[in-house]
Amino acid sequence: MPNFSGNWKMKSSENFEELLKALGVNVMLRKIAVAAASKPAVEIRQDGESFYIRTSTTVRTTEISFRVGEEFEEQTVDGRPCKSLAKWASEAKLVCEQRLLKGDGPRTGWSREMTNAGELILTMTADDVVCTRVYVRE
């Protein structure tokens, strides 16, 4: 099992605005979110199957704590409350499915994968729209 712990900075991002659009975020909020999320600071602490992930931007900070294989509450990228379940998809890839607590919306989820080069690849999905962000340790 890889160690995801560390402070991470974003190296590249693809399709973030398209993801927000698929989630129904209006154009003004998308522009603000894209600008704010261009340089997120991510802190991950891992203790075996337990994770703490803190993502900070100039607009907001999100924190989640969870254990692999146990359902937990968090928010979708656009801030809607959901139940989530993270599972190992492979030795180096954690996949999380999200289920909205109320209302309808696209099917959402995320994955985090460690590469052999030591990069962290975050993918976020809304139906068939995929946003990919690559992070390197600071």
**Overall form:** globular
Please mark out the parts with pLDDT under 50 across 5 or more consecutive residues, or reply none.
none
State the secondary-structure class: mainly beta
Radius of gyration: 14 Å
For the largest beta sheet, what order do the strands appear in spatially?
4-3-2-1-10-9-8-7-6-5
Topology order in helix (H) and strand (E) letters? EHHEEEEEEEEE
Mean pLDDT: 94
Strand content: over 45%
The share of residues in helices is: 10-25%
Query: How would you sum up the major sheet?
Result: 10 strands, antiparallel
Kindly report how far apart the N and C termini lie.
21 Å
Number of helices: 2
Find the count of extended strands (DSSP E, 2+ residues). 10
Short summary of the structure?
This protein has 138 residues and is mostly beta strands. It is built from two helices and ten strands. The protein is globular, with a radius of gyration of 14 Å.
Describe the 3D structure.
This protein is 12% helix and 54% strand. With 138 residues, it is mainly β. It has a 10-stranded antiparallel sheet with strand order 4-3-2-1-10-9-8-7-6-5. Helix 1 packs antiparallel against helix 2. The longest helix has 10 residues, at 27-36. The radius of gyration is 14 Å and the shape is globular. The protein starts with 5 loop residues before the first strand and ends with a strand. The mean pLDDT is 94.
